[in-house]
Amino acid sequence: MLRSLRACGTLLVLCAVWCNYSLAQNQTTPATIQVNLDKEVGAMYPMWAWFGYDEPNYTYMKDGKKLLSEIAALSPVPVHVRAHSMLVTGDGIPKLKWGSTNAYTEDADGKPIYNWRLVDSIFDTYVKRGMKPFAQIGFMPEALSTKPDPYKHSWTPGGRSSIATGWAYPPKDYNKWAELVYQWVKHSVDRYGKTEVESWYWELWNEPNIEYWKGTPEEFFKLYDYTVDAVKRALPTAKIGGADVAGTGGRGGTKFLTDFLTHCVSGTNYVTGKVGTPIDLISFHAKGAPTLVDGVVRMNVGTQMRDIQKGFNIVASFPTLKNLPIIIGESDPEGCAACGMVTSPQNAYRNGTMYPSYTAASFARKYALADEIGINFKGAVTWAFEFEDQPWFYGFRDLATNGVDKPVLNVFRMFGKMSGKRVEVIGSRMYPLRTFVDSSARGQQTDVGALAAKDAKKATVMLWNYHDMDIQSPPEPVAVSLKGLKTTSVTLTQYLVDATHSNSYEVWKKMGAPQTPTKEQIAALEKAGMLEAVGKPQKLAVKNGNLTISTSLARQGVALLKLDW
């Protein structure tokens, strides 16, 4: 009886949420989007073309190679890839949040043994696809760790086990560590050529302000100095930086990043004894924080935006650093890609349309924040890849499952079709930047917004219908008015991600959610995972540079209007 009452109570709450939402929608006029092609606001630079993951050994496995080929193909420019554990000791067999390459061991006399076989397998996979490593230097090899036992973590999703074991500790010999770094960069130059390696970015470690680093901040600054010196000795033109701190908007993250940059600018270099340490890029992390509210997932995009805003402002506060490239080394709705929705039910947004709509709405605001603060924003790493040989649609934060693309990947395919200059967008239902950053997207109405760009013979408009509450609704009308078209006619192609388009998850559910799908079912799922165009391209007349396109967009839907002439 008690269980039934609780179920009824939850149902009543959900009905109330839905009714309030429906009432708000019915009281509003159709959303309008105005696109002014004559007013440029900045370049449509591909800061979205950056991806990363914990388990480096997935890179050269069957589904890993397939997904990397698709990621490389969606962008007109090289995609950058970052992976953890590139120097970790082990057998090369991946587990969740674990990987290894066995790049460094020692003989009985303590002499280094370098083995680049698995490191090469990873970077070869990238380079052959025209991708660029965002090469993470870490973590500590077992033979160099000051506390090597236990070395391999025992982490499991939803468990209390610690992830920070011997690989997270400082080196017992900084000179041996530096020699390892030197040999890796030198080997990379020998294998791929100086010009190729000059086009990469290198960075040290991951989230040294939390459990990924078991030393002190000063020990990390020392490690950075030795690492930079080694990289520059092997390749003086190499680009390296850091510090990929976690929770940049929190007190601890703010302090660590500020102290790190202060050390680089005016601290005493542990290697040279002089003032300062070279830094060619600055990186930090930004994450959201979804929760469950009466059984419904509620996202928190504002938390992620405030992390980004704080990181941008910290960099801007250093006059000698503010023009350096900034890379958000991990930029995601929350912090644990390997925590599926079974053990972490607040992560149930990942398979369907919430993840794509969150991505579209948040990436547009990343551009806007960079414009407002005036920094050199280079890239935002989406920390999502794939998990080899795991259950279908388990709810990991990934781009594909068992070789089938999930809806979120199609938003990046949309981004890949946008180029040229970003232009002014005014939306009647688009949340102002300040509201989006300070209060997230939690008002009565959804955030119906757009990001638009123009090129020589093309204009593109990405539309989304986003709200933090994971509730869906039928499509509603959206009118898109474009001004400043330098042509008398255009060909319109519309792409869509929603419950019935570009959505392998909904197709899988209609199949009965099989965990052992047939070849025919897999083929159908692969087709459903591709970006789908709605109908056939349309020829439209442009009058005096103006054009209005009437469309519709469901809550959590994302559309791309592509106009060619």
Automatic annotation (TrEMBL):
Pfam families: Glyco_hydro_39. Residues 102-528 form the Glycosyl hydrolases family 39 N-terminal catalytic domain. This is Beta-xylosidase. The lineage of its organism: Bacteria, Pseudomonadati, Bacteroidota, Sphingobacteriia, Sphingobacteriales. SUPFAM superfamilies: (Trans)glycosidases, Glycosyl hydrolase domain. Belongs to the glycosyl hydrolase 39 family. The keyword Hydrolase applies. It comes from the Bacteria. Keywords: Glycosidase, Hydrolase, Signal. Gene3D superfamilies: Glycosidases, Glycosyl hydrolase domain, family 39. It comes from Mucilaginibacter calamicampi. Residues 1-24 form the signal peptide. The keyword Coiled coil does not apply. InterPro entries: GH (IPR017853), GH39_cat (IPR049166), Glyco_hydro_39 (IPR000514), Glycosyl_Hydrolase_39 (IPR051923).
